[in-house]
Amino acid sequence: MRSTERNETAKVSELTAPAESPASPPGVLGRTLAIIEAFDARSTSLSLVELSRRSGLPKSTVFRLAAEMCRERLLERHEDGRYGLGLRLFEIGERVPIYRSLSEVARPVMDDLREATRQRIHLAVLEGVDVVYVEIVGANLLSVGSRTGGRFPAHATGVGKALLAYSPAAVVQARIDAGLPRLTPRTITTPGALQRDLRQTRTRGFAQDREESHVGVSCVAAPVFGSDTKVRAALSITGRTTSIDPARLGPAVLTAAHTLGRSLRESHL
After folding, report:
1. Cβ 122 vs Cβ 136: under 8 Å
2. First CA to last CA across the chain, in angstroms?
3. Which residue among 45, 61, 100, 225 has its CA within the 20 to 30 Å range from the CA of 83?
4. The CATH classification of domain 3-93, taken from the options 3.40.50.720, 1.20.140.10, 1.20.1250.20, 1.10.10.10
5. Verdict on whether the full-model pTM lies above 0.90
6. pLDDT along the chain (269 residues), means of 10
7. DSSP character for 19?
């Protein structure tokens, strides 16, 4: 990997990794969530000291809560004494009806789009000012940081801009107020530039990410509207910049998004 790409990957990791020293959260539930959210895709196994640092909790508190969470299978303790997320969290997550239903309806459309384009297909929703990836189809051959359940700042991704373009103005302003961090040299970092890009997205009907989240990677993304006619999710085609032709793939992702939207409306989602 070139040094520039390594530097940009490091920036993305810094922006998407848990904070190292957050303020100690109040209440048992808040402290429990702080421990769970200390884990990420790169850190699936953490020591007691690492859990304490990442959660902002004293080691004695983490030790006590971790023991209780292990008993409830929310965490598991490995033979080397390190902790990992427990199977019960997966079991609980599978019961969340909205996102599971969205993924189930979307998967056939995503499989067809993958087959037609031979690219990586993303399905994402907006949560606060970030996008969360609900479903991904296609091998990750590009060192792309996206993963199912992962999140990225909405302004720096195609799916995020597709969602923001059709969201209320207050949602866009909330993203601006939260900051527009730079992930690559091409990331949009000013409110004016973001607003112009969102207007262009509405004119075209689909958003473009021109190496704004990852160097060497681009995508086209389209909004998906639910049964209430509000933007529900976004669908994207992602690949190496040299393989992403907006003139050809833009209409393809638009057609797939329209198909998925119709399926959502038929399913009353």
Report:
1. yes
2. 42
3. 100
4. 1.10.10.10
5. no
6. 46 42 68 90 88 94 94 92 88 66 92 96 94 90 76 96 97 97 97 98 97 95 92 96 96 97 86
7. P
